[in-house]
């Protein structure tokens, strides 16, 4: 196999596969492979070795412990005495892991480190996910701290008043309500949305694809909150949620494959997909579905994401085109001229903090192989 082929199979950024499919809170214990009993130290080195493919990741030491840095910032270590994984995450996330029993405070010499958590039991799936989360968090911290990004990546979270506005709009979806609270929408949602797009787009270009477009404007990565009532008068005037798209291509987010985020009053949806295609784009998509190798690659990634809680959009046609077996792997996608694959998560506490960027990034990264397939193969 060529080196390019190995990189494609390796997943995001040439690493050994995408991060394990994370639950909405990063939970879900993965079982060890049959017969593969490893120590914490063995598992740690197994999981971090592929990260060295990123030139920004370097091995170092911290208080005498082996650790990893990203662009000089610590993000993971190993307690050789206990065999526990140590990761640096937002303080709120650390508290969440400790409260759920999945982590323990990291308190060397009695001093508690609020942004570090110890995960004692070797668990390949959980450790891989937390390492990816910590690595992404280190990346967002670095970007936000660069002087040239000041004022553009300064995302501080969506204010409580903004989230309350969305909840109110869900209850009273009227022009009167929106006009009365227009200033709240602009200040607490629209302006932070622009900073969110810039910050998350920076991370996704590093972690998923350098070709992703992140344009902090309505009509770019931001969707209008007002519904177009010219062609669907039965819709409410407004959408009680925020929609974002990070697309790859020259035709824009409504036609090109995209990574997507929706922030609603009670939850966040994250995933990827492409709108139904037509013409030459649809022909290219169906040609890829007829290739056993290509469709097998797509189906493997989609099946894994579905097992992790993602949902596939509804079919757009009753039966596949002639020549495609409705019972085979291609049949699942041939009845969809385009599709979206989305995971629905409860609204996290991070939504009102800068940590929302890393929270979303680590949950979008597992969708990268499907996004890449739609961009290159479909």
Features:
single chain; 378 residues; Aspartate Aminotransferase, domain 1; 2 domains; six-stranded antiparallel β-sheet; five-stranded antiparallel β-sheet; 38% helix; globular
Describe this structure in words.
The chain is of the alpha+beta class. It folds into two domains: 3-144, Aspartate Aminotransferase, domain 1; 149-274 and 339-377, no CATH class. It is 38% helix and 15% strand. It contains twelve helices and eleven strands.
Tell me about the largest β-sheet. Answer: 6 strands, antiparallel
The count of domains is 2
Helix content: 25-40%
Work out the helix count. Answer: 12
Quote the distance from N terminus to C terminus. Answer: 22 Å
Structural class: alpha+beta
Strand order of the largest sheet: 1-2-3-4-6-5
Mean pLDDT value: 84
Unreliable stretches (pLDDT < 50, length at least 5) are 1-22, 25-35, 142-153
Compact description:
The protein is an alpha+beta fold and 378 residues long. The chain is 38% helix and 15% strand.
Secondary structure: elements and pairs:
Blueprint (H helix, E strand, L loop, with lengths): L2 H8 L29 H9 L8 E6 L2 E6 L2 E7 L4 E5 L2 H9 L4 E2 L10 E4 L4 H21 L15 H12 L3 H6 L1 H26 L34 E6 L10 E6 L3 E7 L5 H11 L2 H16 L3 E2 L16 H6 L5 E7 L9 H9 L3 H10 L1
Antiparallel strand pairs: 1-2, 2-3, 3-4, 4-6, 5-6, 7-8, 8-9, 9-11, 10-11
């Amino acid at each position: 196999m060529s080196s390019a082929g190995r990189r494609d199979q390796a997943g995001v950024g040439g690493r050994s596969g995408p991060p394990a499919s994370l639950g909405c809170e990063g939970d879900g214990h993965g079982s060890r492979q049959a017969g593969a009993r490893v120590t914490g130290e063995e598992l740690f080195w197994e999981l971090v070795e592929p990260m060295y493919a990123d030139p920004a990741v370097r091995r170092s030491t911290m208080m005498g412990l082996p650790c990893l840095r990203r662009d000089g910032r610590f993000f993971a270590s190993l307690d050789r005495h206990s065999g526990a994984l140590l990761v640096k995450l937002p303080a709120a996330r650390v508290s969440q892991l400790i409260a759920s029993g999945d982590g323990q405070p990291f308190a060397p010499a009695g001093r508690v480190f609020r942004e570090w958590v110890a995960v004692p039991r070797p668990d390949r799936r959980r450790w891989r996910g937390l390492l990816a989360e910590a690595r992404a968090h280190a990346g967002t911290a670095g970007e936000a701290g660069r002087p040239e990004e000041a004022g553009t990546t300064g995302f501080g979270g969506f204010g409580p008043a903004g989230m309350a506005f969305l909840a109110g709009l869900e209850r009273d979806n009227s022009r009167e309500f929106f006009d009365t609270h227009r200033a709240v929408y602009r200040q607490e949602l629209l302006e932070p949305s622009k900073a969110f797009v810039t910050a998350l787009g920076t991370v996704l270009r590093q972690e998923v694809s350098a070709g992703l477009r992140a344009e902090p404007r309505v009509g770019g990565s931001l969707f209008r909150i007002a519904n177009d009532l010219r062609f669907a008068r039965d819709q409410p005037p407004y959408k009680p949620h925020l929609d974002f798209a990070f697309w790859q291509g020259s035709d824009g987010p409504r036609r090109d494959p995209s990574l997507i985020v929706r922030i609603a009053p009670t939850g966040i949806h994250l995933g990827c997909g492409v709108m139904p295609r037509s013409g030459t784009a649809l022909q290219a998509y169906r040609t890829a579905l007829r290739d056993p190798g290509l469709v097998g690659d797509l189906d493997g990634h989609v099946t894994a994401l579905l097992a992790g809680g993602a949902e596939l959009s509804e079919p757009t046609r009753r039966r596949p085109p002639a020549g495609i077996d409705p019972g085979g792997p291609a049949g699942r996608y041939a009845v969809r001229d385009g599709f979206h694959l989305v995971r629905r998560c409860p609204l996290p506490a991070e939504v009102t903090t800068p940590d929302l960027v890393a929270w979303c990034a680590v949950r979008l990264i597992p969708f990268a192989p499907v996004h890449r397939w739609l961009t290159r193969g479909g």
